[in-house]
Amino acid sequence: MSSVDPYGSAEPRNWERPDRPAPALPWPDRDLEPGSWTNGSAVAPDHYADPRTGPPADTGAAYPGHAPGGTGRFREPGDPAYADRRAPVNGRNGHRGPDEDADYPTAQLEPVRDDPAGSEYPTTQLEPVRDDATPAGQEPPRGRRQPGRRRATGAAARQPSGRAGRNLPAAIGVGVALGALILVPLFLYPPAFLLVIAGAVAVGCWETARAVGRAGAHPPLVPLIAGGVLTVGLAWFAGPDALTLGLAVTLLGTLVWRLGDGPAGFRRDVTAAALIAVYVPFLGGFAALLTAAPDDGPLRVLVTLVAVALSDTGGYAAGVNFGRHPMAPTISPKKSWEGLAGSLGAAALGSALLIWLLFDVAPWWGALFGVAVSAAAVIGDLAESMLKRDLGVKDMSNLLPGHGGLMDRLDSVLFALPTAYLLLAVFAPVAG
Fold first, then answer.
1. pTM over 0.70
2. I need a surface site. Which of 71, 133, 204, 279 has the fewest CB within 10 A?
């Protein structure tokens, strides 16, 4: 049966039709100039049937199996016609000697030895490295891992961490330093505490702008910091209305500043700038409002910070020891309902006692104050955890050893400040 042409023709091919002889092949061409590739001699029928046969020797005899003279006949190395070569064929693959052709520099290299017995392999005399201290020739005992293996070294061994994954000694030291930085100017010279608030707001704006930059947003940092410091100062000297005015000025300044960078990413950058302006300077300005209260401003700041500290401490202790039920696993997997109960309980008890002693307010009002401030602190912590998870960062920065960034310490305080300001304005009104 004849083959069918896959390109549309059903006729048999030429080689399958005896009535139509196959055309002569155009190769080799008999009209070629004699000697162009056959050296003037007729091509033998089996010239290329022999796998050892190659180009003739009159072109320089580039192949060692051909003898000079141009006959194109393969000659063995023992042939007398091959004796005029400079070097006999050597090697297992028929290559010439190392001094025969400069085009093959690798022929002069020393062949690789198969046996490692010579002095050229000094590494074979070394003892293989063992994972344990078991003597050579003995198998290590099975079962329990030998002491000293996989022991932590370097920084990991020098930095002990608690169950929360933090370097506890460094965290405690930094916490004490921050407490001193707040309390000393707060009670010794309150106007100096304004500088502490302004510096914290500036650092918080920088850390938050740096963090949102990972998502491709580039809010203008200069108007954010300048507007934040202005917002805090207005709240200190002019009260709540000036705090709102400072926020409006900050937002307007970032909008005008961003216009100079062109339309690319304008909406994204302005949205990030608005988030930072509300999150850091506006909420932080309530610290200035609390401190500026006449007569007992430092005490109002103190009870707020103590309530937040008790909330964090109680939540940590209860969560580490009794935490079994995650509260928000997609936002903060380490937070549990047991930890929330510890936060609320510790803040309620401590605030009830402290407000009763400092402001002569009934303890149940102090307990309500502690619960509200603790709830706001937990919400602020969850809000920043969600922001960091969305941005793909663990800490806002590495400014504070053991704590991360300053915003990692201010996240709960920022949400607690307006809550404390409003509740204290009800429970302990400012005289005059």
1. no
2. 133
